[in-house]
Amino acid sequence: MPCAISTGTAPSPSDDMMTATMLDSADVDLAPEESRSEPLRGSASLHDGLLAALRDYIVEGNLADGARVPERLLCEKFGISRTPLREALKVLAAEGLIDLLPNRGARVRSLSSEDLRELFDVMGGLEALAGRLACERISDEEVAQIEQVHHDMYRFYIRRDMHGYFQCNQAIHRMIVEAAGNATLSATYANFAGRIRRVRYSANLDKERDRWGEAMREHEAILDALRRRAGSELSDIMFQHLRNKRKAAQHIGEAQALEGDASR
Amino acid sequence: MPCAISTGTAPSPSDDMMTATMLDSADVDLAPEESRSEPLRGSASLHDGLLAALRDYIVEGNLADGARVPERLLCEKFGISRTPLREALKVLAAEGLIDLLPNRGARVRSLSSEDLRELFDVMGGLEALAGRLACERISDEEVAQIEQVHHDMYRFYIRRDMHGYFQCNQAIHRMIVEAAGNATLSATYANFAGRIRRVRYSANLDKERDRWGEAMREHEAILDALRRRAGSELSDIMFQHLRNKRKAAQHIGEAQALEGDASR
DNA sequence: CGCGATCTTTTTGCATTCATTCTGTGGATT
DNA sequence: AATCCACAGAATGAATGCAAAAAGATCGCG
Questions:
Q1: Of A68, B130, B244, B254, which has the highest C-beta tally within 10 A?
Q2: What structural domains does chain A harbor?
């Protein structure tokens, strides 16, 4: 019943990826230092501003997994009263970023491995759709642009530059989604991407050298299908690509889980 | 001073005196008949109850397309104050059911033909995914159940029973989505289905005899692929099936638009 | 008679207040 | 000593209050 929302929600500045920045949670660090001097940056209609700010705040990992969302503190941090904050929380709950327990507040939603499995598959489905639609309408110029980024990505791959590789990778996927020319799809995609972004599977990708090479080959296939405008084929490839990504992520996730158990 | 709020003390402002004065403005036909005696049916946590109730209220078409969502009247109808109602509105806006214009309230989101195109394609993508996933895990029993409904549907088709046919059709699609075994997908699917449900394209399907027969054949193909657990193939079929549905809907939509123009 | 400015009424957005529920601590009982 | 209960403090959920914006009405003017 927690209806998975999908669109209408602002994509939010997805860009900088998930790696690095994640200071390890726990201490919530609601710094008085950065007291959000600006009246909630930009955006239309204040509420949207707050919503986006809060979403980023959570997606960027400022709150630990499963941690309670401190209503009071956030009010102070953003300089607003509880009413608009709670409205934003309801929306984030509907988006699936947090859980809202009756009478005991909001907690950052922690994704079980089952949740991850589901999310990856849905992402796969959305990307498969994006690929199919993109083949119907993408221009040669757009394909060329994607090829460009693909080559950049290849260079990063050769140099074993994880960060650069990852940026390009994200960019390519985003470009394909955009090329689909379907705003509803883009919004839905952004939502799920945000949900999954909290998970730090990527940082360890370089431990999975095999997977990395495999991923490169898959991207070659993606480009090839895109060039030929082979929608149905690309659809399959995209889904499989995400499936493989999922497997790698699960693998890493399990390893981390073991690690965690060991250190405990 | 029609508004009871102005009094400083305002002891339980229940009722009727104020309703009288607002009749003129209304026109919205918030039926006095069904005055929502129940304390918001079922569900946990009141808020969810209200949310579901409001969603149904809108999805079922009680408010005209593009109509303003009358905050005060709804508050009375559901017997709650504005705070929880507004929270629900934010969520519905995030779901894409209504638009929230800054400082000028909520309106029922009217779907442009472009929106419909996008929605149908996304639904197609989700159903394609559902079919693919279903093939991975569906049991023979589940396939048999779907076959059962399929045969029922066929009978309705032969008898030209639109209503029964439509019911079975919906049921089959829902069963496939469920068979995918992905709760996230189910929730997302339900969300989009709700959005699209406001459009009543189906009623005129019987005018499109060709499409009806074609749809039956497509369903045969769906079943066939499902039996063979041919995921990738089923994925294609599902997407195409929705594409064709979209075309039929657009066709009808245009016809209705013309009709509307003519009568004007 | 039409058009626009100004004033009133209504609506919206947010803050504040109030009632209820939860949480955590201390004490009494077994 | 451990368990259970009671109570104080804090939080959550919802209602009310208030300032500002929009919609509507009234009136003056061309």
A1: B130
A2: 1-110 (1.10.10.10), 113-263 (1.20.120.530)
